[in-house]
Sequence to fold (449 residues):
Amino acid sequence: MVGIILTFLVAVFGLCLLFVFFLRHDGTPKHPNDNQAHVPVAGLSAAFLPPFDIIVGNDDYRRLCTMPELKSVREMFWRDRRRIVLMWIDELRKDVHILWEFRRFLVRNGLLVTFREEVRVIFTGLLALLYLKVVRAAVFIFGPFALHGALGNARLLVERLSIWGEGALARVPGARKAEIEQRWTQQLLAMGTRSG
Amino acid sequence: MHPLLYLFPCSAILLEGLLLWRLSKHGLASRYPHLTVFVLYRFLGDAILFPINRYRPDWFAVAYWRLEAITLSLQFLVNWEFFRGAFPRRSTLHDIAWKMLLTVELGAVPAIVVLSWRQASSMHFLYLHFSPVVEQYFCLAQAILLLTPATVAWYYRVPLGRNLRGLCLGFGIYLLVRSVNFASLQVFRGFASYWRLLTPMTFIAMIAVWLWAFWEYAPSSEQASLDEDQYSQWKTEWQHLWSRTMALLRRGV
Fold:
């Protein structure tokens, strides 16, 4: 009976996968206009992050807490800061997606990687996305100043992926680097991630 | 046999014939030889079964299940066709897909063997000629063999082209539905009448999807560039041969 139940489950899962594969975009990036072609190599997210302590530090908030007459300002500050931290987490999540996509792009374009490395990247990417989801929910519930350590860990996970991305890019032969960078830029433009 | 039931073998033979005709166009048969062998075998098999069913119905069950056992083995050719089509060159991606396939199969095959062994030992054979348990798990294993490289291709956004996408979709649905069909046969009482209809219908649906996919040569961009490389290699070889022949002729004159 276990076998039959498993057969049903695998069949349902497999059919869903097949439809996802069939409906997806076929992976051929659209060619952007030539005047759009000069965009720096993206995806190496750590460079784009603002200083961490400014976003999640609570020095201003603590100072406001010492002044009871500014209670309404303090509450507004708390809400605004929470919104900023949530936006920052969303940006980190986008970075994870871009870094992951960058990695896949490099492998698809012939970068030499081992199977173990790929498994590690997939595992870290999934872990980072899951972690960011949990931290986002926690920030929404407990506020922006309660999870300083957790937010730091989230940033570290994304930075680790970023370092791996940079390391992979460094392994691309010099002769192909310019071509790879241009194709990656085209892909980013096709994905619409850099249109803003 | 009820005249309506002739609809299935007739449409299967018709669609297989059409598919073979399309495969013979644009050199598709040479580009997808394993698939062509499979379709040709099914076409001949169905063409043989049709008169047997009409004139010697007592032979039909034996002939059908013997041909079915061979079909089950030949389906691996379609699996291989998809893999070599999706990852045509020896590359990092090819190696990753191959290792992924090995890893998944190393996990899935022992599980399938254990499950089928236990299921076979607890169930009576439903018919004399072939065990439905073997059919169920063979199809399941082949579906996993198909889905693994398809997942790797999807993960790395490898463009497949219409030919391979259709091949994967048609074959995948056929294998999974067939596996469920044979599993249901063992669980639900009174399913046999539906099973008799579902089995040929899923096969005909697969051939119809393949016919759509292989109506014209629409490869992935990588396969297309490989074809161009091969063409330029052949051209260079031919030019080399031609100039050598001319040189030899001149020397002879």
User: Anything to note?
Assistant: Chain A has one domain: 2-191. Residues 2-191 of chain A form one domain.
